[in-house]
Amino acid sequence: MPAPAHRRSYRREGEEKRRDDLIAAAMSLVAEGGPEAATVRAIAARAGVTPGLIRHYFQSKEELTHAAYRHVMESMTQEAVRAVETLPADDPLSRLAAFIAANFRPPVMTPLLVGVWAGYMHLGRNDPVMHAIHEATYLGYRDRLQALIAALPRPSDPARDRREAIACNALIDGLWIEGGSLPDSFDPGEVTRIALDGIGAMLGVTFPATAYPATAYPSLPDRKTNP
Amino acid sequence: MPAPAHRRSYRREGEEKRRDDLIAAAMSLVAEGGPEAATVRAIAARAGVTPGLIRHYFQSKEELTHAAYRHVMESMTQEAVRAVETLPADDPLSRLAAFIAANFRPPVMTPLLVGVWAGYMHLGRNDPVMHAIHEATYLGYRDRLQALIAALPRPSDPARDRREAIACNALIDGLWIEGGSLPDSFDPGEVTRIALDGIGAMLGVTFPATAYPATAYPSLPDRKTNP
DNA sequence: ATGGAAGTTATACGTTCGAACAATAAGGGA
DNA sequence: TCCCTTATTGTTCGAACGTATAACTTCCAT
Fold first, then answer.
1. A15: distance to nearest CA of chain B, Å?
2. Integer distance in angstroms from CA A58 to C1' C11?
3. Residue A17: predicted pLDDT
4. Domain A14-58 listed as CATH 1.10.10.60
5. Taking all atoms of strand C, which protein residues have CB closer than 7 Å?
6. Is it the case that residue B133 has pLDDT exceeding 50?
7. Domain ranges of chain B
8. How many CA atoms does the CB half-sphere of A77 hold within 13 Å?
9. Is the predicted pLDDT of residue B96 greater than 50, yes or no?
10. For the CA atoms of B39, B42, B44, B47, what is the dihedral angle to 10 degrees?
């Protein structure tokens, strides 16, 4: 077997870009083919580098997996938090509605993100680091949801708030999995409306019409309003 | 390395028992350590046989995986169906409640079953056989739920029934995942009560008290009623 | 220009996986 | 009781995996 005539040429990139590229490559591979498809060779090929480079930026493949999972979970929580913090504190109903709705549009409810979540979720059962990442994001999410529920203008009842937070969290999770797995089975905005209607019914409140997504289909070719 | 002096002795078993043992071994390994822990060697060891025997009963490891996944999904659907068909058709409220409650007690809501579901769920994204098994059980489940909702004594509205079936299915899924993953975070029967209260609120109905699980904790050592 | 640090490639190693296959023990029918 | 089918074992094989490491290329400082 003759020695290769030439090495392939390459460009040097900053550390941040390389790490982001490798994480994005790992995420997309997991979303498409599950964790077993995210081999170091496949990740490197998708990122446009050679396998050895992974070990230059991550001590092990496990460390890259942790970084990718943390990126996925944090991006979802940050998106919901960002949707809330722009609203005034004296409008708890709109704040809760915005928190809910943020989960059912990109970049949170996408096949890629649901696929990565599905591929990685069982790893939290044994890997302590993955479990810690999962707990920090997941329970933090539910606590924040319970705080938004407790802020509603009605008599205080912490035990009821806990039960309702559990129920609302479960409904959001189930709808997110369904909507992200089968995006073509729902009209635009339909999942959001189902979530707001269902949670409103469970909490005994009615969310303002402004909290709902704009009606998606005039279903007529001529639209008076734009995008 | 000397040839082994003696082969280990063994007993011949019927085909059905061997297949069941291998499926159960694969399921428990997936529940504990994810799909990557369910190697042919580990499965054979747990079933008390040698790896070669797997290929005697299944053409490939993939075929064993399909059999195990089908067993998991079918056992869950059968359990919910069985809970309904013992109730009279003229009591749709109790039938719906029984269908819901069946998902939140053994043998459906167990860490093992949730773990197997989590470990296998991402395989449905690429493997056509797994996808078919998933669709046949999952959509069949939701259709049956929608039929029970449509049978409620109230004005007919198929579009509303569809939206409510989606919401109820999502709530059941989310609670089942939570309750099965963290069984110690809930009191006995608490998940069932949350599900019945939440679904009742979303549908605008009140389930009869007989549909709820018996209060679990007298929290006093002396109980008047039995086990 | 040029030297040197560091990013990147290419190759190799040891392990483990699913699979294949020949050898053997077991148990029922004649 | 013997024999023949077959359930089961023990071993081996090629492929692919994560990891390790030396050699090469790029690019900035000088």
1. 31
2. 20
3. 96
4. yes
5. A 3-4, 7-8, 10-13, 15, 18, 49-53, 56; B 6-7, 9-12, 38-42, 51-52, 55, 60-62
6. yes
7. 13-58, 66-211
8. 19
9. yes
10. -130
